[in-house]
Amino acid sequence: MTPLLYDYLAPPVHERPSFVLRTREGKVVRLADPLIQGSVLVAPTIDPADPRAVYQRIADDLRTQILSGDLPPGSPLPSEAGLVRQYGSSRGPVRQAINLLRSEGLIDSHQGRGVFVRRRPPLRRLSIDGVADGTRDAQNSAAEIGGQLEVRRYAPIAAPSDVAARLELPEGTRVLARSFRFIVEGRPVQLSDSYFPYDLVKGTPAEDPDNEPWPGGTLTQLRSLGVEIREITEDVATRTPTPDETQELGLRPGTPVFEVTRTIHATDRPVVTSRLVIAGDRYVLSYRIPIP
Amino acid sequence: MTPLLYDYLAPPVHERPSFVLRTREGKVVRLADPLIQGSVLVAPTIDPADPRAVYQRIADDLRTQILSGDLPPGSPLPSEAGLVRQYGSSRGPVRQAINLLRSEGLIDSHQGRGVFVRRRPPLRRLSIDGVADGTRDAQNSAAEIGGQLEVRRYAPIAAPSDVAARLELPEGTRVLARSFRFIVEGRPVQLSDSYFPYDLVKGTPAEDPDNEPWPGGTLTQLRSLGVEIREITEDVATRTPTPDETQELGLRPGTPVFEVTRTIHATDRPVVTSRLVIAGDRYVLSYRIPIP
DNA sequence: CAGAGCTACTTGTATATCTAAGTTTGCAAA
DNA sequence: TTTGCAAACTTAGATATACAAGTAGCTCTG
After folding, report:
1. D10 nearest neighbour residue (CA to C1')
2. Is there a contact between B219 and B206 (Cβ–Cβ < 8 Å)?
3. Nearest nucleotide (CA of B115 to C1')
4. How far, in Å, are A113, A274, B24 from residue A147 at the CA level?
5. Which residue is nearest to nucleotide D8 (CA to C1')?
6. CA–CA separation, A249 vs A238, rounded Å?
7. Number of inter-chain CB pairs under 8 A, A vs B
8. Fewer CB within 10 Å, N side or C side of chain A?
9. Is A224 helix (H, G, I), strand (E, B) or coil?
10. pLDDT digit string (tens) for A159-196?
11. B134: phi then psi, degrees, rounded to nearest 5
């Protein structure tokens, strides 16, 4: 480590790349792009010729380090003060860069602790398999891997218009409305609102919330009601979560969710429709479609 | 409009809800939560008893107005200066609130113009239909509705390991690598990288990029090669886009993407695998799964 | 040794001020 | 009437400062 031979005259950021150093003898020199770390002149990490904003360049540099593995998952970034020193900027742009990377889902920050490269949980696969048996839905998966099912609502209501349309019933028809939250490995991963035509479940064990989670999942439950299932339709959308969903699913910023609208059809009519909100950082939806 | 009868003594935000007004006669009164707009005392819009940060409360208030329709899509928000006046805060929290709403996909901001409630384009449906014929894939849809196909790469390469695995070929086997960008209604909506085993397409019209887009889509193209398609598998993930993808798809902040890994299987072997990156604000993926 | 408490460090929030850069508007000149 | 330009707006970016609040590690005390 060579000791610094120059006094460092840091110009304001908007005047760069005019980095100016003055030697101990008073001679002024301009360098292309030095960076001062402690008392040592080191290689530059951001390109001063880049006309983009300082916070963009800082974010780019950190992103490169993260994606290249120089900053592996779980490792801490330098503190804000350290980044300010390292990039010769001020706290505003540094925090803006951190906010950007957080919104990209690359880092997590924790007050009092620091900023860390986000560990990506392994993606679980949620399958609906038209070839095999169609039973491996989310509810079943949750049960299989020891998840918990939190019952939030389980009551007959008058069908709202979208539900009625999907069940091909007149608006206001009585339906059994069920709301669940699935918790896997201690973390909430899925919210679910589902609706049965009430005449289908009236007087059956499916009317009792204490029977949830039903062993084998919804499809088994339907079959126990004597329903023969012919088809499942799913519409998969993605979006950023609402604040409520962020709260209920314990999501970190920069995590999108799936919104799945699923309808299960029996031979003659739709028998369940549901709306699932699934944490996008934990699941991949897997489909297998046979072509006749 | 009643003229204001009081001088307004704005206390710093962290001291609220101690709003203090002094009458022209010098008497000091405390009000639960007034707000000054211009010269008029108006109903409060944020709850000073709320212990959360000021920017959170501002964001909540604006979000409520947007979701309720008081601020309809396309309408402008008050300017930063206006919001500063309205909420009696400073520019920092106001901008922080705007950043939050932008990351939620609720607003767009344009330098020099203002901040506007985002118009949500209608969601198009991308179907893969196992019941009918399996031909309505993205490529075909793009063609149907008059989209454009931008060819970015169309060349044989040595298969990278993930592609080789999905095609059940040894790593390094020659594959035809194709990269497209789909543009619908003047906006890019999908990036696609797809791979054929090279022996399948060698010496056929499918080897020539000038034949793209193939009428009827990839499945028709495969059938023209004498391939009998039996199954399509799709893994659907969602995430925030990379900066590159944001650029290439022209995405606004707060828009997630789908990442679809699709493999098409013939009777004896996989014949195409592709990785699609789809703008999440434009499409809903629709699946119809028959249950035997 | 166990626990309380202090200290130093971290990120989070709020304020004030300045400059840059893009957009709209209206007025004046051609 | 049309064009050009200046003024007045808008958001974007950077800096400086202050304090709040959470965390970790150390030391002191019992």
Report:
1. B112
2. no
3. D11
4. 30, 20, 65
5. B112
6. 15
7. 135
8. N
9. helix
10. 999 999 999 999 989 999 999 999 988 889 999 999 99
11. 70, 15
> For A69-160, where are the alpha helices, taking DSSP H only?
80-87, 91-103, 138-144
Find the residue in B nearest to A245 (Cα): B104
Q: Report chain A residues whose CB lies below 8 A from the CB of B256.
A: 238-240, 256, 280
pTM here is 0.83
* CA separation for the pair B32, B17 (Å, rounded): 7
Contacts of residue A219, Cβ cutoff 8 Å, sequence gap at least 6: A134, A135, A137, A140, A229, A264
Q: List residues in chain B touching A: CB distance below 8 A.
A: 60, 63, 99, 103-105, 123, 125, 128-131, 133-134, 229-240, 242-243, 253-254, 256-258, 280-281, 284-292
> How far does CA A76 lie from the centroid of its chain?
21
Angle between helices A91-103 and A54-68 in degrees, nearest 10: 50
Q: What are phi and psi of A50, to 5 degrees?
A: -65, 120
Single-letter code of the amino acid located at B4 = L
Q: Which residues of chain A approach chain B closer than 8 Å at the C-beta?
A: 60, 63, 99, 103-105, 123, 125, 128, 130-131, 133-134, 229-240, 242-243, 253-254, 256-258, 280-281, 284-292
Chain C: bases < 7 Å from a protein Cβ: 9-24
Give the tokens for residue B166: 């999905």
Nucleotide nearest to A114 (CA to C1'): C10
Q: Using CA atoms, how far apart are residues A274 and A166, in angstroms rounded to an integer?
A: 9
Whose C1' is closest to the CA of B111: which nucleotide? D11
Encoding tokens for residue A138? 């989310």
- Chain center to CA of A290: 30
Cα torsion for A217, A221, A224, A225, to the nearest 10°? -160
Give pLDDT tens digits along chain B (292 positions).
222 333 333 333 333 333 444 433 333 333 333 344 333 343 345 555 667 889 999 999 999 999 999 999 999 999 999 999 888 889 999 999 999 999 999 999 999 999 999 999 889 888 865 444 444 454 455 455 556 788 898 889 999 999 999 999 999 899 999 999 999 888 899 999 999 999 887 777 776 767 666 766 777 777 777 888 888 999 999 999 999 999 999 999 999 999 999 999 999 899 999 999 999 999 999 998 888 7
Q: Is the C-beta atom of A51 closer than 7 angstroms to strand D?
A: no
Q: Which residues of B touch A233 (CB under 8 A)?
A: 286-289
Q: Which amino acid is at A90?
A: S
Could you say which of A130, A235, A254 has the minimum Cβ distance to residue B284? A235
